[in-house]
């Protein structure tokens, strides 16, 4: 048996090992149909004058439609895109659709975020892949995890929300047909009205109550050529409130009697509270109490000062005398982290995520190209600092919080308050930047622990920017090594990539669910193993290196650094082969016409670089979407300046092209901040960055002009919120090489 076959069989055993406990899962639960996503587990009482047509939709007497919204709005536009899905299938004007936060129920669970986490190559097919996707999707329906992340909001809602709209429309048509003693086939719908072929018509509002008794035999979704709303540019429905200041973010809530809390957390990773003197601050203006919340959130020890205003709480927190135990990681540094990564990548073969072709076609090679790339830890640095408002009273908990994980938020609150999840009431606010940070529940656990000692009054906990920056869940530091062999014709006959970093999912599972993850974590190697390039031989492996540094999901996760590694090295190979970087990529994409089309669209639109400038190109697929970017760059006073970015994206059917363009611009600016400035460093166990003076983000005068091309497609929608971020760093680095001859292999990109 060849070694590659042995590895593949070993991989199958690992992936399927958890599926056959006593055979029950496969034989019993596995053959049952997946749980439905249309009706609530526990029906909600309808408000006065409203009819619940299904678990997603209710209709008022005036024809206003309210839909349940399981996703949070953090700037990605879901409060516009998801109502469009229902309005399209229900045939009502978008302006008649309202949204309301969905209750915790399994029908609102995000299936796509779990099925997309499986470590399969996108070009792969077969029984194993389909079986794993089936079981994972079915398990996701059972778990019902409500989560906004992984660029899955529209992707996951694409079928259930359209089905909800189509089912409600079919019920209304059936009700009209019954009232008219007519055939449903002779009826059609338009703008909230059922119309018969003979001219009779009835408004939805007049039919809603009668529709409750109808059970249509067939529910038909519209085909793309029938869409009237989906695919058209629509204005953001949350824009006006955000412009005029009426939008309520987490820090805006003001329940009666609310107190404020500021936190001081251990300055070293793994540090603890040794002693503190609460009496020293009790006499300060507005101070109510001092609370030790250590142990509420995993790995975070600290104190909170509760006061009548946040400024009073903050000043007292600064003045609070505290002695800290530095903990076991007081000697940790960025340098020691990278030494460990180097040692492990040298000693460990890692987990092979993808291997194709003959293992060692060295005899055909005449030139070997080797390179090593690095990426630093990164903070999320969302504009809205970490915050949560909690009230613990009479055995019940009320939360007002900007969270990406409503169901986990409720579980965290119930755990700290030692009550049942049914006793937790959750209000999800607008989020002023999530980027993955609000997938965590540490701020919720803290707020509930603090509020539990506030005599029933609500307490709003706000972290200072310094606490936020120094106690983040960081993007992992990563190391990548490449070795490629070229033949005399400049073809790559062997491509090897080995990576080393911490495993985010392993840590998240431990923090959130209490058990350590094992086995491969797709986020470590995504963007590296799942590339489209058609090398004769390729092998991509990852070495998971445990770290005490808290790791979390950061916008585009592993793609954010693996795209930089991979697309920069592709340019290195093109240079070594004496080929134009675009033509070189084209030669490797002959069986990938979608990727070719996206690359060609971006390059064609970008045209020629201006005088004194150069174009850098990068192509990357993430979260199901293919993105090509061309960055137009110059060097001014030894600083990198990005003037223009041309971006093409194939994300399947574009539900709202306006939002897609906005998300590409957002992702590019976010990615440029990281590419040019982003770096978290650790010395003596402490994160050194504290605020935007030493962790800068892109300023308005540094932002490039962005042109976005949205490719036409009738395929189901794919991710949009994150795919704009990964290609920008390599596109800029590749342009810098053209201008200077320097190959920048470490982030952030610095010329000196």
UniProtKB/TrEMBL annotation:
Transmembrane spans: none
Signal peptide: none
InterPro entries named among the record's database cross-references: Ald_Oxase/Xan_DH_a/b (IPR000674), AldOxase/xan_DH_MoCoBD1 (IPR008274), AldOxase/xan_DH_MoCoBD2 (IPR046867), AldOxase/xan_DH_Mopterin-bd_sf (IPR037165), N-heterocyclic_Hydroxylase (IPR052516), OxRdtase_Mopterin-bd_su_IorB (IPR012368), TAT_signal (IPR006311)
Cited Pfam families: MoCoBD_1, MoCoBD_2
Domain Aldehyde oxidase/xanthine dehydrogenase a/b hammerhead: 244-328
Highest taxon in the source lineage: Bacteria
Protein name, UniProt field: Xanthine dehydrogenase family protein molybdopterin-binding subunit
Species of provenance: Noviherbaspirillum album
Lineage of the organism: Bacteria, Pseudomonadati, Pseudomonadota, Betaproteobacteria, Burkholderiales
